[in-house]
Amino acid sequence: MRDATDQTHGTARRDPAGDRQQPILLRRRTCRPPTAADGPRILLLHGLANSGTVWDTLCDHAARHDGLRSAELWTADLPWRASGLPQWNHRTDAATWAGRALEAARDAGGADIVVAHSYAATAVLSWLCREAGPHTDARSEDGIRGLVLVSPFFRDRPADIGWDLVANLAEDLTDAMEEGIRAVAGERGRPALRRAMAERVTESIGPYGWYRFLELYMSTPWLRTDALHVPTLVVSGTADAIADPAEGHALVERLGSASWRPIDGGGHFPMVEQPERLARTLAEFTARVGAGPRTASGGPGPRSLPPSTSERKQ
Predict the structure, then answer these.
(1) Which CATH architecture has domain 6-155+223-289?
(2) Which in 69, 81, 207, 251 has the greatest CB count within 10 A?
């Protein structure tokens, strides 16, 4: 069942024109059945120049899976959405914006599972690694019981980053925008028209947007992944031409509590291209981390479990 509730840091909003001025917009996409009051709350975060609508097909598939039928799904429209704030990238880095999105979710009741795609996946990971310390982690601070990173960008060592990353950046990212348009719209329309639309999106992101992308991507070798203890699932399409699936596997090797789920033949947008497969994967992960009742303080209950290791070396 769809729900039209929109929230900005927990405050209901009804003005679409005003929404364009809000950096973060939470939207409840599905409601728990009355018999599933303790089902998990799942927050879905989109990549660069997308929006919460990129999760539409996955939300439609959620009710078909036992692990998601009782869940309450939310999306967040982030500052880097296609219709977002034009100057979101001037003063604030992507990881900080991701932290504000988690704060908004916490103010709205909390998220048990955070699912982040592409640019948002790396931004959320960077924020959680930045905030984690020897006496705290995301589970205690934000109530997060599980983290799903879909098609993340990651480099393990500084030596893995060379001039090849930046030499053709504008064209490569235009290719990424075109792939996003194709994935969402299908093969409808002429290729020349899709390319023109992708070039307009690239222009709207501008050099500061690309700077923020590079800033985030090139800082990944220094992420304090050893301080992150949230059960994590990394999902990569084996045919992803935008975020190399080898980077997802390298990230799993760096994380102490992660598993890897490759999607055979999948591209950069598995929530659109293979929503049934991704929904099943998310349902299995949600069941495994034990997203049960929350404590009185809003934090996670006692059922958080480590992920199985059977997928880690796939």
Answers:
(1) 3-Layer(aba) Sandwich (3.40)
(2) 251
